[in-house]
Write a structure and sequence with these properties.
alpha/beta, ABC transporter transmembrane region fold, Rossmann fold, four-stranded antiparallel beta sheet, 20 helices, 10 strands, disordered C terminus
Length: 616
């Protein structure tokens, strides 16, 4: 493959896809997006640490307050300012803990949302940069869900990491240090062992039950793909009365999802029971040591309350560790799927030294040359074989032949949806594999055989050929496509919605919208791929006149099945099994009495008589 891969916009380099990516590799892929706002991240971390220190200070002040309240009613000590000061300090520390937590979230909100936006945009742009082969082999519903879950996974991962896991670890370290410094070392040992066992058990059990969650996601994606595919093809389902068949197919995945969901819930019960058992044992041991300390006088009642409060502060967030760990693992998996899309190989790419395509005379159009072109979609079936022909600038060339002859492949190759295996395609002497794809596609306009419209208005779909076009230009393009009268008779006119994939319009109406938006683009090279196949005879004849008037100033390639649409072409190429077997004008081909003449006779049901054909 020629050239080097483009860098997607957004300032980030593509991430190399490894055969077995660990969780840390996925997180490493995310970090550059977060560290673009490194100062915000730094301040958020400082606020996090400050919040944890304030949070640790709350039970310590409460302990001092309890010890300070060991006074007799009515004594002079009851009027001292110390208890009042401790109460104020207790309230201030709680307020500071909350204040620093909110500041942390406020500072990090922009970091998270910026990363989500940039990655989502980069994936979206990369998907548009991928080859047609990729999109033909993927289901749109599955791809959209991968992007949706991936962006949601970033927010989940950052949220749980910054607001749950990291704060808990910092508080864990502070509590252990406080226990080791102020009390018997066994307080720190019991706390450490209990938390390590709890975390180890949670991770192991969560890992065991992760495959149930993964199965749930797979069944969810498959069900979603089938539902979207069925709804997009709503008319086809109705034509064949297959509503129950589609429902059964959809329900198959729902049943698998249900089974996985039940197993996941059962395993969650096992996880929760084990967690509570570990917490209970740890609390009993730590409180037993504290009670012994109060009895022997080495600890006060305030110390007992402090130890109990610190343990509860640690264990409350740990109650959700299983859920958090599972969601973080799932988020990483979802992010990896999205990054996989981002790292999908861009088969058709600009070379490093690619330059913009230069057209000698844009008003006339470029000269198009196919030189000894060989092409196949897969190795088992060759589509084009040593194909060579020239379309002189400003002329009309028509390509005809039976279905499967390779006619529509010519348009795909001109747009560089695929690259040829051998040979070259040149526009004004420039190999299209050596020019920028954007500049190439800018000068080509196509009306495809199967027209798919956006779920928007008629005006929007016509204006897609030139998004900045004025309303007058849109109306003029519609008039040239022989559809202005039809639009003006609609209640909402040009603002009429066309529905999903343009289903509210007939086949002929959709094709005329496609013709209008192509004319609005004003390309130097026009391609019509069975452009009039869905038009009625009267509209087709009217459009043919308009077409040949427009084609006088442009290079035009017409791919046609109905020969009556190409009789005025400057040259006609007859293709069969990827090769040109005849070429010439309409009358020359009739006189040669070859394949074209046979096709003409079958379609027109008339004798092969050039004079009679001219009269007709």
């Amino acid at each position: 493959m020629r050239g080097a891969q483009n860098q997607p916009s957004g300032g980030m380099l593509p991430i190399k896809r490894a055969a077995n990516r660990s969780d840390w590799q996925v997180i490493k892929d995310l970090l550059p997006y977060l560290f673009e706002h490194r100062f915000r991240v730094l301040f958020a971390m400082l606020c996090l640490v400050a919040a944890k220190f304030a949070n640790l200070g709350v039970p310590i002040v409460l302990k001092d307050l309890i010890d300070a309240m060991n006074i007799k009613p009515g004594s002079l000590q009851s009027y001292l300012i110390v208890p009042a000061g401790l109460i104020v300090g207790y309230g201030a520390l709680r307020l500071l803990a909350s204040l620093f937590s909110e500041l942390r979230e406020l500072l990090f909100a922009k970091v998270t949302q910026s990363a989500v936006r940039k990655i989502a945009l980069q994936v979206f742009e990369h998907l548009h940069a991928l080859s047609l082969q990729f999109h033909l082999g993927r289901q749109t519903g599955g791809v959209s869900r991968d992007i949706e879950r991936g962006t949601r996974g970033i927010q989940t991962l950052v949220s749980f990491s910054l607001y749950s896991i990291l704060p808990t670890m910092i508080e864990f370290a502070l509590v252990l240090a406080y226990f080791a410094y102020n009390y018997d070392i066994w307080f720190a040992i019991i706390t450490f062992v209990a938390l390590v066992v709890y975390i180890f058990y949670t991770i192991k059990v969560t890992e065991w039950r992760t495959h149930y969650r993964r199965t749930m996601n797979e069944m969810d994606s498959k069900a979603n793909q089938r539902a979207i595919d069925s709804l997009i093809n709503f008319e086809t389902v109705k034509y064949f009365g297959n509503e129950h068949f589609e429902a059964r197919r959809y329900d198959e995945n729902l049943k698998h999802y249900q089974s996985a969901a039940i197993l996941s819930q059962q395993s969650l019960a096992i996880l929760n029971l084990g967690q509570q058992a570990i917490i209970a044992v740890g609390l009993v041991l730590i409180l037993w040591r504290a009670t012994q300390g109060v009895v022997d006088g080495s600890m006060t009642l305030g110390d007992l309350v402090l130890v109990n409060t610190l343990m509860i502060q640690l264990y409350i967030p740990l109650n959700f560790l299983g859920v958090i760990y599972r969601e973080m693992k799932q988020s990483i998996t979802d992010m990896d799927h999205m990054f996989t899309l981002l790292n999908e190989d861009q088969e058709i790419k600009d070379s490093k030294d690619a330059k913009p395509l230069l057209i000698r005379d844009f008003a006339k159009g470029p000269e198009v040359r196919f030189e000894h072109v060989y092409f196949s979609y897969n190795k088992k079936r060759e589509i084009l074989k040593d194909l060579s022909f020239t379309i002189p600038a400003g002329t009309i060339t028509a390509v005809v032949g039976q279905s499967g002859a390779g006619k529509s492949t010519l348009a795909r190759l001109l747009f560089r949806f695929y690259d040829v295996q051998s040979g070259a395609i040149l526009l004004d002497g420039q190999n299209i594999q050596d020019v920028e794809q954007a500049s190439l596609r800018k000068v080509i306009g196509i009306v495809p055989q199967d027209t798919v419209l956006f779920n928007d208005t008629i005006a929007y779909n016509i204006a897609y050929g030139s998004p900045q076009a004025s309303r007058e230009a849109i109306v003029e393009a519609a008039r040239a496509a022989q559809m202005s009268q039809f639009i003006e008779h609609l209640p909402e006119g040009y603002d009429t919605p066309v529905g999903e994939r343009g289903l509210k319009l007939s086949g002929g109406e959709k094709q005329r919208v496609a013709i209008a938006r192509t004319l609005l683009k004003k390309p130097a090279l026009l391609i019509f791929d069975e452009a009039t196949s869905a038009l009625d005879s009267r509209t087709e004849r009217a459009f043919q006149e308009e077409l040949f008037n427009l084609a006088k100033n442009r290079t035009t390639l017409i791919i046609a099945h109905r020969l009556s649409t190409v009789v005025h072409a400057d040259q006609i190429l007859v293709m069969d099994h990827g090769q040109i077997i005849e070429r010439g004008t309409h009358y020359e081909l009739l006189e040669s009495n070859g394949r074209y003449a046979s096709m003409w006779q079958l379609q027109e049901n008339a004798p092969i008589d050039p004079d009679q054909a001219i009269d007709n």
